[in-house]
Amino acid sequence: MSDEEDDLILSELSDDELVLQMHDDLYDGMAEEITEAVNILLARKWLPYDVLTKALVEGMRIVGIDFRDGILFVPEVLLAAGAMKGGMKILKPLLIESGAPQLGKMVIGTVKGDIHDIGKNLVAMMMEGAGFEVVDLGINNPVEDYLAALKAEKADILGMSALLTTTMTYMKIVIDTMVAEGIRDDYIVLVGGAPLNEEFGKAIGADAYCRDAAVAVETAKEYMDRKHNQL
Amino acid sequence: MTPDPHTPFLGAPKAKPGRVLILACGALAREIIVLKDMNGWDHFVLQCLPADLHLRPEKIPDAVEAVVRKSAGKFSDIFVAYADCGTGGLLQKRCDELGVQMIAGPHCYSFFDGNETFEERGEVTSFFLTDFLARQFDAFVWKPMGLDRHPELRDLYFGNYEKLVYLAQTNDPDLDKRSEAAAEKLGLAYERRFTGYGDLASALAPQAKDSQRG
Q1: 8 Å CB contact of A75 and B119
Q2: What values do phi and psi take at B162, rounded to 5?
Q3: Which residues of A177-196 are buried (b: 16+ CB within 10 A; e: fewer)?
């Protein structure tokens, strides 16, 4: 890091400069700077929704592109996500208060037998950032937990994640149970995780396989649009 | 679907009789050499792909196919010494298309422990090391996960795990020590379990018999 960057005083930057600086700081996983910048924008009477979308979500979109292109790797994405999380913590209650637009509700969780949650947590965070309400069931979820949550939360979307070849097949059990109970078509089912692929997603009857968090957000938006168009 | 073991891969028109190519993950090189020497499988020719392909498992099927195609006609048979290894069934599919066999099971932890035993144990919250990973912990776990630069990420990766299980192929006190140190570094309880070569040995043995029969 250069001396110039060390000396940077965020509060002295113009709005446009500050937003660009936030994109850089997210990219570099600088959590404290992101928290400070979020507070500065709010103090300048920015709407929480604008801080979220123009600064944080846009910054993470850039991170997502470079991850996809092999420029950034998982550790850097995790640090960026950690920085965004700090900003989201401040914004979340304000977004609820200000009635920011909600695109839909997602129940998400890692499947039974699997304790890996890094990808799932990234998707949950990016979905929240994009304006979805997210109910995170955590790890190691049996089919009963998914179905109970979908019903109780009146969700639009089910998101399932797995990191292991041995556990990804559990997604089919969940979807088959939904079919058996006649509720499969009531929900958009998105699946993801390292060993999955599009073919697998189709074979188990999911609506879509999402290779990363950014794709999950875009796919969820697309399916919600279709759902609204059908109504 | 597993191909007929007697169906030659890619036609193998000018195969040299007897020689079998074992196309293996680099993480299995030592173990395969030991088994080869121990059993007198002199007709096995070992070729390894870089072990770090495991960091991008989606690249494994193409890498395997490239070698299989390049080796067509040079061997009487080819055996792919990989399990699924995070390819989500894509490696099995590719091997079926190429007419070559591979190791059954999800990954090396499973076949060293024995696929059936591993599945029965259902150790969801265990992180596994083999001899290779005990030896190469820093290069294949700690550094690729960025923990050398950002140790604060440790609990994000390993917070849901409870213990590190070292599946030992050999009795080597140095590897025991390294594995125990790895467990400590990851903040996990430690268990050592001697497996020997497990299903790796039984996966390779038929390749020796089939070839000798041919």
Answers
A1: no
A2: -110, -40
A3: ebeeeeebeebbbbbbbbbb
pLDDT by residue (tens digit) across B75-131?
999 999 999 999 989 999 999 999 999 999 999 999 999 999 999 999 999 999 999
pLDDT in tens, A95-114: 888 877 789 999 999 999 99
Query: Residue type at B94?
Result: R
Round to whole Å and give the CA distance between A83 and A61.
14
Amino acid in the structure at residue B159: G
**Domains of chain B (ranges plus CATH)?**
20-106+198-213 (3.40.50.11900), 115-194 (no CATH)
Q: B188 with B127: CB under 8 angstroms?
A: yes
Q: Are A22 and A51 in contact (CB under 8 A)?
A: no
Set of chain A residues whose Cβ sits within 8 Å of the Cβ of B119: 166
Distance, CA of B114 to CA of B110 (rounded, Å):
6
> What is the mean predicted confidence (pLDDT) over B47-66?
94
Residue A5 pLDDT class (50, 70, 90 cuts): low
CB B52 within 8 A of CB B112: no
pLDDT tens string A39-84? 999 999 999 999 999 999 999 999 999 998 989 988 999 999 999 9
Q: Do B88 and A79 touch (CB under 8 A)?
A: no
Distance, in Å, from the CA atom of A123 to the CA atom of A125, rounded to the nearest integer, reads 5
Mean pLDDT of all residues in B3-13 = 44
* Under 8 Å between Cβ of A193 and A119: yes
Distance CA A37, CA A51 (A): 9
**What is the ipTM metric for this complex?**
0.84
Residue of A nearest to B87 (CA): A195
